[in-house]
Amino acid sequence: MSSVNEIRAVLAAKYARVKTSGTREQREALRLAVEIIGAAQSRPALGKEVSVQRGEVRTCVFFDEVPFINVLDHRNPYLAVYYRDMVEPKGVVPNREKVTISFKAHPFTDREMELFLGVIEYLEPLFGEVNPRCKFSSAPIPIEKWGANTLPEDLAVYRQFIHPLIVGELSNLTLTPGDLVCELACGTGDLLADLRSVRPDLSYMGSDLNESGVQIARSANPGVPIHHADARDLAFLDIGTVSLFVLCGLVNESVVTKDDARQILLQVLSRAKKQSYAIITGRTPPLLKEVELAELGFFPLLATRWSQYGLLPFYVCLTPA
Question: N or C terminus: fewer CB in 10 A for the chain?
Answer without folding.
Answer: N
